Amino acid sequence: MEIKIIPCLNDNYSYLILDKNKINACVIDPSESEPIIEIIEKNKLNLNFILNTHHHYDHVGGNEKLKKKYNSKVVGFKDDKDRIPEIDILVENNQIWKENNFEAKVYHIPGHTTGHIAFHFFKEKKIFTGDTLFSLGCGKIFEGTYEQMFNSLNKIKKLPKDTEIYCGHEYTLQNANFCLANDQANLRLKEKIKKIKKQLENNLPSIPTTLADEIECNIFLKAKDLKSFSKLRDLKDNF
Ligand code: ZN
Ligand code: FE
């Protein structure tokens, strides 16, 4: 399985996943269609599936055009069937979604939206977390509760430590500054920030991150209870 990271809009990432034969592909959260089409054409791929983590426009904006052009099937959370454009396949919590050479477990991780899900390609140890877990941060709570977001993050935290995390936005550096302000003695965080800065200076994404890094460096994953998590989430909104 190969993953191509595709920058979209201002700071979004869409991800194109190629199967081992490099013929079939699925895309996670196509914000827009053009950058995805460019890579599909260049690599002569079949876009079989469009996987959406949640219904926000910057994650589903390319659904319609891509589906029309490639006859792809759109996969999304069952409760969001009325707000994910062009949805075909409804998935639910803890379901294993398996098609062709692709196999992922679905986790319902509400908080940012009520219907947010993650796709965990468990054999490859890669998870697509949308706007729930970012590198060094977490998503804003738009529809859910603090408790839901806290529980959702804890669910991800229990996965194997060497899981690679692919999130929806390049927010890492802003997030890093917030982590550092609240965790000044964290040497591993400081090392990670050095690495991130180097990547960004070279026009490379700071993604993927690893769960091990996030558990050690992401202040939201370090929050030990709901109360301290909620306080951090409020502070970040005004940072
Ligand atoms: Zn969103
Ligand atoms: Fe987003």
What report would you give on this structure?
By secondary structure, this protein is an alpha/beta fold. The chain has one domain: Metallo-beta-lactamase, Chain A (4-Layer Sandwich), CATH 3.60.15. A hairpin with an 8-residue loop joins strand 8 (102-108) and strand 9. The mean pLDDT is 98. The chain is globular. Strands 1-2-3-4-5-6 form a six-stranded mixed β-sheet, with helices on one face. It contains nine helices and 14 strands. The chain has helices at residues 34-43, 57-60, 63-70, 146-157, 172-182, 187-201, 211-217, 219-222, 226-237, and strands at residues 2-8, 12-18, 24-28, 46-51, 73-77, 87-91, 96-99, 102-108, 117-121, 126-130, 133-134, 137-138, 164-167, 209-210. The site of fe (iii) ion has 6 residues, from helix 2.
Short description:
This protein has 239 residues and is of the alpha/beta class. The protein is built from nine helices and 14 strands.
Essential attributes:
239 residues; alpha/beta; Metallo-beta-lactamase, Chain A; six-stranded mixed β-sheet; 35% helix; 28% strand; binds zinc ion; binds fe (iii) ion
